[in-house]
Amino acid sequence: MNDAAALRRTLLYVPGNMPSMLQNIPIFNCDCVFIDLEDAVPLNEKDAARLLVRSFLEGYKERNKEIFYRINPLDTEWGFDDLRTVLPALPDGVRLPKADTPEIVERLDTFLTECEENLGIEIGKFKIIPSIESALGVINCIKIARCSSRVIALAFGAEDYTASMGIERSKTGEELFHARTRVVWAAKAAGIQAIDTIFPDVNDEESFEKEVRLSKRLGFTGKSLINPRQIDVVHKVFAPTKEEIDFALEVIDAILKAREMGTGVISLRGKMIDAPIVKRSSNVLKTAASLGLVDYEISDEVIYGTK
Amino acid sequence: MKIARRAQAGTMQSSDIMVFAEPGDELIIEIDSTVAKQYEHLIRAKITEVIERMNVTSGIFRIKDRGALDYAIAARVEAVISRAQEQEA
Questions:
Q1: Any idea which fold B7-85 has?
Q2: Nearest-CB residue to B79 (from A20, A47, A56)
Q3: Has residue B41 got a pLDDT over 90?
Q4: What interface predicted TM-score (ipTM) does this complex get?
Q5: Which of A27, A100, A163, B15 could disulfide-link A19, Cβ–Cβ 3.0 to 4.6 Å?
Q6: Cα(A194)–Cα(A53) distance, rounded to whole angstroms?
Q7: Of residues A17, A18, A56, nearest to B71 (C-beta)
Q8: B68 has a chain A CB within 8 A of its CB
Q9: Domains in chain A: boundaries
Q10: What is the homologous superfamily of the domain A3-238 according to CATH?
Q11: Cβ neighbour number for residue A9 with a 10 Å cutoff
């Protein structure tokens, strides 16, 4: 499947040293998880947490969502051990904290290639989601988005970002506006996904929903979450309306007819339908299908046509 | 391989297990579990499996189980054995 179209709306953090949370991963209805070995694990439990995560993943054979895990930064004493211990249990990828420069991401890329060679698996299997969470990271995110084919999304992290700026994070987020926009630009220009920061107050559902709406309007494709209670709100906000779904179905129908006639462009209700609109419509249908709003499985062939 | 020094791993949260290891001349495993009646033999089997896989032949293991599943038991026993080998800083 074309990775840019994979559904990653909800990416839930799960503490790496808590069996009671880890073993619920199969039943959470989020699209992805970030198993956390960094901030959720105290310094004296780093060794035990990575063994626990590996052991859990080895037994989790029927994966029903994407599994990323957040390692400790590569310049700490734990980062590379997190990779060496857990990668043999085949997570889908790594969320790299403090990804401030392309060089840091390239360092991880090289290490992942070595691991894949040692494990005898396909090169490029392990994906990377760099965390853009400092002033430096925001400045460099355009290069970071393009520095490795493993980078399938940029994840903005507002807690560390505001700390690096020496400012407070507000509920309305004006102070994040420029950084968020830049992360979305960088991701879109590189053809990858953009994941917005966590919202820390689990009990303030109203502000959370407002923030999710803002994330969607700015162009983020998903949001990092800290509590399973936040999942449904994001799915609701990211859900397409009935009008959007009906229009998307018409678009797909029209473009298939157009291709039969040997053209890649056609008019629908007076509007020109071409590749970008087909792509957007296919995203609408994919999201709708995941929520059970439409029974339609879309293939790359429909989106891009046959060669 | 022997248990070189005292160590512990795990937590007392539900679904977890706490494992204490200390040096001893023979291999002893003591289990205190909320589900001991039904599952003690399975917990013991899992612990023994990991201890054997890591070639530990003697030592005293005291277990406080809070309903941990196999993967968590295995990970905590592996963690305690690896900690019990390390030199104290």
A1: Ribosomal Protein S5; domain 2 (3.30.230)
A2: A47
A3: yes
A4: 0.95
A5: B15
A6: 26
A7: A56
A8: yes
A9: 3-238, 242-304
A10: Phosphoenolpyruvate-binding domains (3.20.20.60)
A11: 26
